[in-house]
Amino acid sequence: MRDSLRLGTVAGVPVAIHWSVLVIAVLLAWGLADGVLPQTAPGHAAATYWLAGAVGALLLLLSLLAHELAHSVVARRCGVEVEGLTLWLFGGVATLGGESPTPRADFRIAAVGPATSLALGLGFVLMAFGLDGLGAGNVVVSVAVWLGTINLVLGVFNLLPGAPLDGGRILRAVLWKRGGDRDRAAAAATNAGQVVGYALVALGVVSVIAGDSVGGLWMVLIGWFVTAAARAEHDATVSQHVLQGVTVGDVMSSDVRTGSADLSIDAFVHGQVLGGRHSAYPVVGVDGTVVGLVTLAQLRGVPPRERVTRRVREVAVPLAHVATAAPGDPLAELLPRVTAESGRRALVFDGGRLVGIVTPADVSRTLETRQLLGRPEPTGR
Ligand SMILES: [Zn+2]
To answer: PROSITE patterns, from UniProt (predicted)?
Structure first.
């Protein structure tokens, strides 16, 4: 995930935090110090509440980390590579480098997360009782109760049966085991995810009407996020299924026209673009190696009077920001890597030599043709 700070490696998994975690940590500490604790444990100084709030927020972030680490560790044990783990606004995301080999592995990787949250929740509640019995201060007991409650809620929330929530992954594993078709199961789980998302939005709206505007709006936001993530995952599942066996070389356009990165934009437009039929051009340095990609939209973005003085290199997307592939690579693996910055285009190299370009039009034409030929879609319905 971009804008993330690398923290280090825990149990062999690279862990990072997104800047939004700082916002959420401050909000959590504030909520505890200013809202929860003065009510549940009255009669203390503000400094005490803030100290307890900070400790509580930190322990909650560590709980989220434990949830994600549990997914990562079990995934690794099941033979699924884990690229890293990032904590952000909505909790954590463990980036898995592959798919579960079996329904059983899929189930175990998904289920261990909510199981960890529920166990932590129970642990904190028991700890609260224990601390209370030992005569610990009411602030400490309140923080433990708060941590227990939130972990229990997180455990239950994540069990909602719709991907991308863990419950959706569990649903996928069960359907996969029963029907024997992973793609169909995944599509059904992401469809369920959209239903869960809409239900959360509806519930949030009802809460707002009933007078709980903060909680309600929060639920609308989460529901909207779940719906969007479920839809994106559904589309990815469908195209991955339809594109099975299709390589980059099958769809690329090999008629690529390159231009010099050191030309002025005006010279480039007159020499290359006018009369051409492409909307993106790989650009090369003096030694002929590809240094980037320029799209018509980027050229158009330069005001006409600057086009004589500015060079193409200044507006082109550097090669490091353009997805690249070899002709033999599976197309489905390339698609998640193309960026909006490069106009969703990818460059194809064979042994260091530029041999083609993949455009959104190439991809959608292939998708439609394959669907036309009747490759069954995993609609899951
Ligand atoms: Zn999880």
So the answer is: CBS
